[in-house]
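User: Design a sequence. Structure:
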């Protein structure tokens, strides 16, 4: 028995429609899988970028952290050292006190040398030397008008009591055609600073070391 032509055509249409549905479903499934694969690849790429940035950041911050830690550690050590009591000086207190007194005395000596100088005299040079037996010696060289300012200057230096000895070494007058009042005389005076008694005793020398 033969089917009518219409039924055969309808069956063919149904079969072709089913094939189209299968193809479209496969295509849509394929597109979903591709989108999912692309999404996974994008997530993997983002994860790789984040991991790389984190590694670079840690590689940059680690040396900084090490340096900061070393800096704060050194600062803490310095603060601890500053809080400790300072170490005593390498010299006994008696010698330090004597050095301060000698410094004050030397300042007074310099003031006396300059302030006691008469107006008619001019000081050109002052030489300081140290002798182990006599102590400090100061040699003054200058010029005056005549001999009287030298005598007056010598008496003033002796009266203040800062020197163990005041000795005029030489007074020479320049030979020239000027008048006697205007002629300049060159003088040289040696001053001896007394040695302190506490440094000259053997006990103090043994305790504080050799005297310079």
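Assistant: Done.
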């Amino acid at each position: 028995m033969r089917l009518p032509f219409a039924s055969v055509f309808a069956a063919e249409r149904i079969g072709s429609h089913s094939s189209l549905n299968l193809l479209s479903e496969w295509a849509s499934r394929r597109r979903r899988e591709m989108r999912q694969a692309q999404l996974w690849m994008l997530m993997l790429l983002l994860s790789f970028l984040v991991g790389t940035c984190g590694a670079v950041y840690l590689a940059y911050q680690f040396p900084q952290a090490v340096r900061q830690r070393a800096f704060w550690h050194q600062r803490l050590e310095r603060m601890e050292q500053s809080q400790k009591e300072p170490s005593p000086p390498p010299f006994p207190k008696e010698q330090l006190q004597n050095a301060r007194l000698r410094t004050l005395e030397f300042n007074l000596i310099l003031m006396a040398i300059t302030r006691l100088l008469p107006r008619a005299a001019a000081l050109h040079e002052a030489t300081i030397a140290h002798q182990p037996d006599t102590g400090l010696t100061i040699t003054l060289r200058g010029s005056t008008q005549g001999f009287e300012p030298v005598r007056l200057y010598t008496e003033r230096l002796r009266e203040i009591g800062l020197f163990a000895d005041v000795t005029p070494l030489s007074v020479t007058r320049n030979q020239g055609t000027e008048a006697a009042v205007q002629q300049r005389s060159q003088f040289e005076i040696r001053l001896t600073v007394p040695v302190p008694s506490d440094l000259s005793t053997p006990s103090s020398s043994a305790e504080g070391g050799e005297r310079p």
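The chain has five helices and four strands. The domain at 95-202 is CATH 3.30.70.60 (Alpha-Beta Plaits).
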